[in-house]
Design brief:
The chain is about 55% helix and about 20% strand. It has a five-stranded antiparallel beta sheet. Helix 1 runs antiparallel to helix 2 and helix 3 crosses helix 5. The longest helix has 24 residues. The chain is elongated, with a radius of gyration of 20 Å. It starts with 12 loop residues before the first helix and ends with a helix. The relative contact order is 0.17.
Length: about 150
């Protein structure tokens, strides 16, 4: 067993797709049944639910799955300052008492955090690893590239 801290990994493709597929399919099926005035026994509402569930699952997965970005760095302190600026622009602040194992945790105010999750950062002398939703990772990567 190693003492090296591990970066939290959120759900990947499969679980994220399943979550959004099931939620969208169930709601779509019930709404189709009520709005069309058709019984669930006919199968028509289920077909709508299946189609919209697939679309919702794909879109939810593309935007909200977890991802990790690994970047080579020269100076961890300078990189952390740049990252703090980027994350502050996105509405994130460091949660100082979140973890004691060397993994930095950034969060938004409570209500916004419920909808966006957290950003986890692990800084090593030569590399930084950032874990969050893929939409946040893309934005972080783009803004860090603009600052260098």
């Amino acid at each position: 067993m190693t003492d090296e801290p591990t970066l939290p990994q959120g759900p990947g493709w499969g679980l994220t797709f399943l979550y959004y597929f099931l939620g969208t399919a169930m709601v779509s099926t019930l709404l189709a049944s009520k709005s069309l005035g058709v019984s669930l026994d006919t199968g028509l509402p289920s077909q709508f639910g299946l189609l919209l569930g697939i679309i919702g699952g794909i879109l939810g997965t593309l935007v909200n799955r977890s991802s990790t970005l690994e970047l080579p760095i020269r100076n961890p302190k300078k990189f952390k300052q740049q990252l703090d600026t980027v994350l502050a622009d996105m509405g994130y602040t460091e949660v100082s008492d979140a973890r004691s194992d060397g993994v930095l945790v950034y969060g938004r105010p409570l209500l916004r955090q419920l909808l966006s999750g957290k950003v986890y950062v692990q800084l090593n002398p030569k590399q930084a690893a950032i874990s969050s939703r893929v939409s946040h990772i893309r934005q972080i990567k783009r803004q860090l590239a603009n600052e260098t």
